[in-house]
Amino acid sequence: MKFLVAITSFVGFLMVVLPGLLYQFFGLDLGTAFTVFRYGVYVGGAALVLILLQVLFARKSMRLGATFIYALLALVAVGLPLSMMNKGKSVPPIHDITTDTQNPPQFDAILPLRKDAPNPATYAGGEITEQQLRAYPDIKTQVFALSIEELFPVAVNSVEALGWEIAAKNTTNYTIEATDTTLWFGFKDDVIIRLTAQGEDTLVDIRSKSRVGKSDLGKNAERIQLFFKTLRERTNSPAN
Predict the structure, then answer these.
(1) How far, in Å, CA of 163 to CA of 227, rounded?
(2) Does the record's keyword annotation contain Membrane (predicted)?
(3) Do 121 and 194 belong together in one domain?
(4) Whether residue 114 is found in the same domain as residue 222
């Protein structure tokens, strides 16, 4: 029983943790990675059942420290995927979020980097827009009480502070294009920020779009909100 508990706990944990790293660094097929990831839940669940049986019927042979570690590994194997699944159910299955749904910022310098991406760079609109507006009503154009010349370098610094890889900084049309790479699977999501002068103020629009996947699990909206939070902190500007 102890050996079976150890094996199922470790295997379940590895089936959940390793697919992202194997996809990112060793070219594992994404479909295979997700399949292994999904089945890790079942293996982790089996480990938890075995641990429960061990507690009920073989308690005397248990080693408390080892059992605690096995239970922790199994909980990660079950909890992490279930958490992601629940997140997916709470957000719309979209992967292109913008503050300006009528005239979204258009990628330019990023386009060559997306040429093999399953998700095209074009903005679909229609039902995608409707789903975004229902789910993220707070994602909208922001106004800053600074001139465009003053705000642009602060926006660039904010992007750099967030660790995004800048592809272009255009001081002619005041746009910034960058890529953010997710930590676990290494998914690359592209961002374009557009500044527009409005009198003495500046309008800031941003668009964040995933290269792969139907649903972004809310990541693009979170990225936009994080950028605005960072920019406001660096300009001491209140939210609007």
Answers:
(1) 11
(2) yes
(3) yes
(4) yes
